[in-house]
Design brief:
277 residues, alpha+beta, eight-stranded mixed β-sheet, six-stranded mixed β-sheet, 5 helices, 22% helix, DNA-binding
Length: 277
DNA sequence: ATGCCTTATTTCATAAGA
């Protein structure tokens, strides 16, 4: 974070700038070369990562670029992390009341990590997929989101500058999928899932919709198959939910679709926010 | 053009993704 000293009177407070990103990398191991390249060019101060898919986070190579890291991983699936070059403290792995699978009392999976970076409280989350509305994983997804809501209700009272971001595996509206008709009867678009997002927003969190760099759709995910990216047949399922203070200070938010191109991309693109505080 | 699926693992087959 850079501090711009204007020399103005004390009533005009100095403005701190931070560039924040969130990106489902679909394996940090497979994506490490692209992540490192992207860190150099996009120059984010803080990066929330999802689907790292490892218990052994590559702290050293990202450290060489100046980033501290906090990682929560459990092996083959899931895994979340945060990188920061503006400080990284108060790391919380998972949240109070977080359910597991198959039973809520099962050990929680590695799907949430909370950190504090230079006055911002951040949560990087990877919400359960749900598979289908008739699958036990769907009940798990709804229970996980309800527990997340309760945890964030506490967090926002403690941290007015709160950002909850990551892969929510829910498209907030029909405009957030390339063809709503295709998704009838599927997970990610049901009323219950969308109401769960509404419960998060009811806490005072704002859906910061990023601008696409091409075309009208703010999609963040495109299936690898059948040239979906090239036809812009995607979904907006990666979300940034920001408290008032953070949302009001956001000067830009965009989807870095270039990161979805080329050799060995993730199936998700990063969202980048520029924030003045 | 951006180009028609990818990942990790119980690895030459499977489960999972959304």
């Amino acid at each position: 974070m850079q501090i711009r000293c204007t020399g103005a009177p004390a009533t005009a407070a100095n403005v701190a700038h931070v560039r924040l990103a969130t990106w489902n990398v679909n394996s940090i191991k497979a994506r490490l070369p692209r992540l490192l390249d992207w860190l150099r060019t996009a120059a984010p101060d803080i990066v929330c990562l999802q689907e790292t898919k490892t218990g052994e986070f590559p702290a050293e190579p990202v450290g060489e670029l100046g980033y501290e890291s906090a990682a929560h991983g459990d092996g083959r699936w899931n895994g979340v992390a945060v990188l920061s070059r503006v400080g990284l403290t108060d790391v919380t792995l998972g949240f109070s009341g977080e359910p597991g699978f198959p039973d809520p009392s099962s050990p929680p999976e590695a799907r949430a990590v909370g950190v504090t970076c230079d006055g911002l409280r951040l949560w990087s989350v990877y919400v359960p997929n749900g598979r289908t509305p008739l699958d036990p994983h769907y009940i798990y997804k709804l229970g996980w989101l309800a527990a997340l809501r309760d945890a964030m209700a506490q967090e926002i009272t403690l941290h007015p500058r709160l950002v909850l971001c990551g892969d929510f595996n829910v498209a907030p509206t029909d405009a957030d999928v390339w063809d709503p008709a295709v998704f009838v009867g599927s997970t990610h678009v049901t009323l219950e899932e969308r109401e769960a997002l509404g419960q998060l927003r009811a806490l005072g969190l704002h859906d910061v919709v990023p601008r696409p760099l091409k075309g009208p759709n703010p999609f963040t995910y495109w299936d690898y198959r059948a040239g979906m990216f090239h036809k812009d047949m995607g979904m907006r399922i990666d979300l940034v939910y920001a408290s008032d203070a953070v949302a009001k200070g956001t000067t830009d938010a965009y989807i870095d679709r270039d990161a979805r191109k080329g050799t060995a991309p993730s199936d998700h693109a990063p969202i980048v926010l520029d924030i003045d505080i």
